[in-house]
From TrEMBL:
Keyword check for Hydrolase: no
Pfam families: Cys_Met_Meta_PP
PANTHER family: HOMOCYSTEINE/CYSTEINE SYNTHASE (PTHR43797), O-ACETYLHOMOSERINE SULFHYDRYLASE (PTHR43797:SF3)
Organism: Enterocloster hominis (ex Liu et al. 2021)
Chaperone as UniProt keyword: no
Protein name as it appears in the record: O-acetylhomoserine aminocarboxypropyltransferase/cysteine synthase
Amino acid sequence: MEKRNHHPETVCIQGGWNPGNGEPRVLPIYQSTTFKYSSSEQMGRLFDLEEDGYFYTRLANPTNDAVAEKICELEGGVAAMLTSSGQAANYFAVFNICSAGDHIVSAATIYGGTSNLFTVTMKKQGIDVTLVDPDAPEEEIEKAFRPNTKAVFGETIANPALVVLDIEKFARLAHKHGVPLIVDNTFATPINCRPFEWGADIVTHSTTKYMDGHALTVGGCIVDSGNFDWNAHAEKFPGLTTPDDSYHGVIYTEKFGKKAYITKATAQMMRDLGSIQAPMNAFLLNIGLETLHLRMPRHCENAQKVAEWLSAREDVAWVNYPGLKDNKYHALAEKYMPSGSCGVISFGLKGGREAAGVFMDRLKLAAIVTHVADARTCVLHPASHTHRQLSDEQLVEAGVDPSLIRLSVGIENADDIIEDLRQALEQ
Ligand SMILES: *Cc1c(COP(=O)(O)O)cnc(C)c1O
């Protein structure tokens, strides 16, 4: 696809799908598992990665590719792929460059699902993780690196701890050790932050959140900046720099250049693990993306009002929102996301864990759902819901206070959201 250098607003609307004369104006759903060819030899070349083309939707589908291209353009990357979920995106992003015996360094303050993936499931596959305090000084974090470290991982804005990652610091550390920085940019979205501009090499998304924005479809995306020089650290990444026997000895970096990482993820991860996003879901995701640039500023504006209102209340013990001036991460948020962070706020009531439950049950507009980053305001108590597999110790390590209420501020009228919170607190 030709690069058109448009502003993000235009990319949200028109990116990824550039129809020719007489073709559908709207991205069609290629609702087909397979694609027809008239020569068996050509089909053979497709299987050998000798030629570009669609042949089976588990590997690639035109609807998915158009949506991946839009997200790629929004992030300023060179190649991207959709996955069936954010979990699959983070798993593939790491597993694409790690095997048994390898090690990764990750910020401790990450999403509970990713934390489980790294510390439990990937550990069983022989990949070790060291969780680090993202706020620790560089020299301290550096101690986590080992000769077999293959990647560094963090979230732009941690879910639900709302820790803002010092992307430049993490990129510096990763690059000093010859490995890429992978950043999960789910909460900020490329509307508010483009991690590649600060040195990140690979970006992942749970598109389930703001990108979809309407709580319709679970999905994920991996975007490669094309900036990491795999050949400069060839001994660390043999999967990219030495022949792949499962594709007649293709060497990804040689044959695909800047697209090596995503091509390998498609050719190996997707082929073998099969977590493709349904084209129908990609179509719905695309509709969400068309308004991402309108929704994000509204989420941030509403969240700012709600956070300030909560901060002024006697019955509220603490409020965590990077947009608040006295927030620990305000300076980092101003630096990396000057036009706003996200719509998610966390706070605790003076009544603690117990009061949280009572308060949530009284809410009328805000619904209790296992979701976040949705057009509709919603709440969750991580200690009793998403993070219930974690011990109290792990909760604290992940930056989640047991009393923490995660409030995902929607794009309704802010006064109505505040009124709902007021009646629930004052009842
Ligand atoms: C939700 C979420 C995920 C997991 O994504 P799913 O689409 O639910 O699989 C990963 N990272 C972050 C930051 C998330 O918020």
